[in-house]
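# nightly structure sweep
# worker-07 picked up a monomer target from the shared queue
# config: single-sequence mode, recycle default, output format = structure tokens
# input follows
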Amino acid sequence: MSTDAYIHAPGAVPLSFAELDAAMRRKRWYLLPKALEAPDEPLRKGVIYSVYGAPRLATLDEARDILRSRRLERLDPLYAKKGLNGVYLSVEDPDPDGDIPLGRHAKAVQEAKLLYLVNGHGGALQWALWEAIGVLTGGILSDPQSGDYRRPSRS
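# output follows
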């Protein structure tokens, strides 16, 4: 089952993949975007990015080689035994008719200029990336499954 996680960000310019990668390395995660042309440029709105991550750089090197060979079935052992995770990441304009929480985060969500979506299977990469984007943007994290809204932890 797929799980969505949102970040309601106040800034109007999307983060770059290079910024995300640096933040995730501080959390001991290494990222590999699939088909990203310019890592220093801001992520483009409306594009769904496929991002792989692992706690070891060697695992990502293996994944990169497998992706290049187009023998994707060979990724399965990396998921099972070496901690490879995958998520989809996108940046959108917030929906003006979207849900606005009650309470202390209502104004920040309502005034958000960007909405980041991290979609995955609830693995460690998804939640680490969700938190990292929240910290980098100063945004509000929302979990549509639980209805929770909160500020990211700084760890």
